[in-house]
Amino acid sequence: MHDIVRMEYTKLHSRAEYKKSLQEAGAAIIRSCIDLNWNDEWQAYTDMSCCPPQKPDLKAWRPVYEIGWTGIAELACPFIMGEKLLGLPENYFEKARNGWELFDQIADAFHEESGLLNDLVAPVDESGSLVNGWWIWYHIAEDCHCAYNNGKAVHEMLKTAEFLHNRGEAYPEHWLSVCLKVLDTIIALQREDGNYGYTYSHNEKKVLDWDGFAGCWFLPCMVYAYRLTGEEKYLDSARKAETFYSKYVLDLNCYGTPMDTWKAVDEEGNLAFVRGTRLLYETTGEKKYLEHLEAGACYEYLWRYGYASRPENDPLKDGWNSCGGSITSISNPHIHPMGVIIDGDLRYLAAATGDEYHRMRADDSTAWMMQNLELYPEKSGYGQYGITSERFCPSDGLVTERYSDGRPYSSWFSFNLWATANVLEAIMDLLAEEEKE
To answer: What is the C-alpha separation between 276 and 345, in angstroms, rounded?
Structure first.
């Protein structure tokens, strides 16, 4: 399978083009988040929407209160990296929360009874629930903690802590303390075969549903924890987890990560596996982890375009290239920006193996996300440079969005903040690598 994909890639490869620099893009994204997405009334960043040409102005439609997946951890990590790498002045965020304050909110969400983080930092409705976010519309994860939220939030916090530590800068000790409490709970619940679970009780330390790949996000968390503390129990847990989750990757059958796909086979969960195996190989030097990192990369390429498709509708009809973009899942087959967060791991893999194919696939992804930013506002019909949608339709089967005058639109008018945040994180990872060089 992977040989066939590689062969076809060689024949059909055509990379996207873009004009602006990484520094310009990173600065514009942070500025857009502050200017557009921060809402003083809700004291939160927001998701926004519009409907051009009649209603081109973005309006906030919901506060972003979730901690991990689609939530504020996605912003907090690249915000802090951006402060350091772009040299942002003090008080740059003005009244909006900066990355440090967002992580403080997440740390304050620790729930003693469950030993995990509440999935929301504030309730989204009159129920007052701190675990039921927008995903309960899909009725697969109600009244529980979700591995995707907890694992991704802890991952972003520990990644940021290591970023600061490696620069010789301090990070708040309570961030690490809370993360370790969560990971200690997960270790106590971890099954002997390495499984971390999919959902958990919100009033006791108990796994409710074992079936799903989302728990794999705790794999890289455990390695970060080991590297920051030196405690072997975290590395031991990561090894067990890698043995369990690798089976799904090698079988090309990763399912049960996002809570809005009814456990369909998806692209997202494998991103955790790629990060985890990269960290394990980097930390231990054991060859099997490099081999599994390559397996995870090749699984990603099954979802990632290596050529330019031909959309029939605006804004993607002309001057846009699907190459480098990754499909989300078999139940939601549009391209989203989440795959860009592992491009640094793919470049690491290329250096470790000497195989430039992996670097090419990473460079495709960088070009893809940078061209998307340049759609705004001229081609998109709304927004400004520094935002990007979470949905791009490389073929016409999924085109459901419509302009206000009824014409089909091959992207989305809902500007959901996590997508721009993931692009910002990928840009910051690239700038961090450049800084080392």
So the answer is: 10
Whole-angstrom Cα Rg for the chain: 20
270 pLDDT band, cuts 50/70/90, is very high
Q: What are phi and psi of 386, to 5 degrees?
A: 120, 5
**Omega into 89 within 30° of 0, i.e. cis?**
no
* Cα torsion angle, 79, 82, 83, 88, sign: negative
Q: What digits encode the pLDDT tens for the residues 333-387? A: 899 999 999 999 999 999 999 999 999 999 999 999 999 999 999 999 999 999 9
Enter the pTM of the model: 0.98
Query: Given a cut of 90, is residue 141 above it in pLDDT?
Result: no
pLDDT at 29: 98
| Residue 233: Cβ within 10 Å count | 14
Placement of tokens 């002997």 in the chain: 192
Cβ(188)–Cβ(196) below 8 Å: no
* Dist CA 206 CA 200 (whole Å): 6
Q: pLDDT by residue (tens digit) across 124-140?
A: 999 999 999 999 988 88
What residue type is 416 in one-letter code? N
CA triplet 123, 124, 125: central angle to 5 degrees?
A: 95
pLDDT in tens, 204-241: 999 999 999 999 999 999 999 999 999 999 999 999 99
